[in-house]
Amino acid sequence: EYNYTRYHPINEIYDWMDSLANDHSDILTQYTLGLTSESRPMQYLKISQSSGNQKKIVWIDCGIHAREWIAPAFCQWFVKEIVQNYQHDYKTRKILQNLDLYVLPVLNVDGYIYSWTTERLWRKNRSQYGNGTCYGVDLNRNYNASWCTLRSSRNCSSNFFCGSSPVSEPETKAVVDFVESRKSDIVCFLSIHSYSQLVLSAYGYSSELPRNYNETFKVAQMAAMAMKNIHGTNYRAGQFSRILYEASGTSQDWAHGLGIDFSYTLELRDNGSYKFILPEDQIQPTCEETMAGVMTIVEYVHDKY
Ligand code: 0X9
Ligand code: ZN
Ligand code: ZN
């Protein structure tokens, strides 16, 4: 029995993916999205109920930032819940009739490993810059969305190093290639982070209002309310640049720019007590409330498309 209320090192997560995909080959398939800068595979799961009709896609990635361990824990929880529920839960079955769910549990594999072995608060990937004098690009500053203009740095020692050019990193490129190749089918793009308890809509790089702002903000508010309803945890909804800070080069803004209106960043628990070192006894309640929020968004896009 896999323990979903503990944090797991990457080898355990990858073993979990293998065995779950094996045990539930009726709806789960595992794929490699690409290789990291240290040549490790980026594994993701496609959750798809077999049927003839062409389905729309919901994308969920976790762990773009190495130290935000609750994010990969949520992606695993999410897959477990869907696999458990789809047999008997009417809502889940209905959603899977029209949507395929693509889940990338650990986007930044090299950084995640480094945060386990060497530096718990590591954020970036592990690519070498400056002839090996510094390491790591902030992958959530490396996308092609007003690249390297806000809350970004050109100094490779910075935690917000944006890379040598947009999409300079293999991890970014792997996501971009996949999402671009399927962009007409992708109706929702979710990127899971911690901490601050926020549901953020576009844009991050500008306080200008994007197309469909009223609707995407409304859905963010619905998700935040659903999250509060589970354990009373407060989540704030709003435009990224207004309630957090302006940041450029984020995956969410890039995905929105591609035409995926329902593109959100979720910042999970907590509110600053434990910050990135969220205790394991909060994994379950955090995942339960996040499940409610994510399913609110997924149901909305299901009904709309
Ligand atoms: O700064 C980030 O990349 C995210 N916060 S974190 O503490 N997890 O690093 C927030 C990204 C918000 N997205 C936009 N502003 N679009
Ligand atoms: Zn099954
Ligand atoms: Zn983050």
From TrEMBL:
Subcellular location(s) of the protein: Apical cell membrane
Protein name: Carboxypeptidase O
GO BP terms: proteolysis
Limits of the Peptidase M14 domain: 6-301
Membrane topology label: Lipid-anchor; GPI-anchor
PANTHER family, A to Z: CARBOXYPEPTIDASE O, PROTEASE FAMILY M14 CARBOXYPEPTIDASE A,B
UniProt cross-references to InterPro entries, sorted A to Z: CARBOXYPEPT_ZN_1, Peptidase_M14
Biological source species: Hymenochirus boettgeri
Biological function: Carboxypeptidase which preferentially cleaves C-terminal acidic residues from peptides and proteins. Can also cleave C-terminal hydrophobic amino acids, with a preference for small residues over large residues.
